[in-house]
Design a protein that fits this description.
heterodimer; A: mainly beta; 11 strands; 53% strand; globular; B: mainly beta; six-stranded mixed sheet; five-stranded antiparallel sheet; 0% helix
């Protein structure tokens, strides 16, 4: 079974631009969560999607948004990029995102904002 | 955002030594998890704990869920070079299974 895949793996953008990251969950998984990882703040929960609906949300500004498609693939978008958005963005998938499920993480997309 | 307090922040140990790290929180969690992250990879689940006081092993790894539900520890016995990496604890509250609150991480380096 293929793992969680994220594309692209690396990305360089400039301030003010917007970016879209993609996550394909493990086949059959319907829950996709997104995390931001930075040296200063560590791993922070962004949001979770299940069945095309945002189910949980972390404390990030509205510039961070996401969506999920009917095949469970998810995208996250960051508009008006700031230098502080430079981070490793990780997504994780689970069958339902509930109960005692294991969340499987992808390798991440490393975003550098110049 | 909230982060759990994890200690030590980093440690150098010799191959064969035992390692101990712990994680504390001001909040109560229903589930405690321990992950390991290798460079260029996402975190991989090592151990999951679901009940206060629970002690669980996975090979050379042993973890415990604190009685107060606000802390957990991880022990690695007889460390080997492939144990190198960053270890994270994570807490999960009831009803938010996919929303994890992570610790600050412990960087483990093993010298031969």
């Amino acid at each position: 079974k293929a793992g969680v895949t994220q594309t692209p793996r690396y990305l360089i953008k400039t301030r003010g631009q917007q970016v879209t990251l993609s996550c394909s969950p493990i086949s059959g998984h319907r829950s996709v969560s997104w995390y931001q990882q930075t040296p200063g703040q560590g791993l922070q929960f962004l949001f979770e999607y299940f069945s095309e609906t945002q189910r949980n949300k972390g404390n990030f500004p509205g510039r961070f948004s996401g969506r999920q498609f009917s095949n469970s693939r998810s995208e996250m978008n960051v508009s008006t990029l700031e230098l502080g958005d430079s981070a490793l963005y990780l997504c994780a998938s689970g069958p339902t995102g509930a109960g005692r499920e294991t969340q499987y993480f992808g390798p991440g997309t490393r975003l550098l904002v110049l | 955002g909230q982060q759990l307090n994890q200690s030590p922040q980093s440690m150098f140990i010799q191959e064969g030594e035992d390692v101990s790290m712990n994680c504390t929180s001001s909040s109560i969690f229903n589930t405690w998890l321990w992950y390991k992250q290798d460079p260029g990879e996402g975190p991989v689940l090592l151990i999951a704990l679901y009940k206060a006081g629970e002690l669980t092993s996975n090979g050379r790894l042993t973890a415990q869920f604190g009685i107060t539900r606000k802390d957990s520890f991880l022990n690695i016995s007889a460390s080997i070079p492939s144990d190198v990496g960053i270890y994270f604890c994570a807490g999960q509250m009831a009803g938010t299974a996919s929303k994890l609150t992570f610790g600050t991480g412990t960087r483990l380096q093993v010298t031969l």
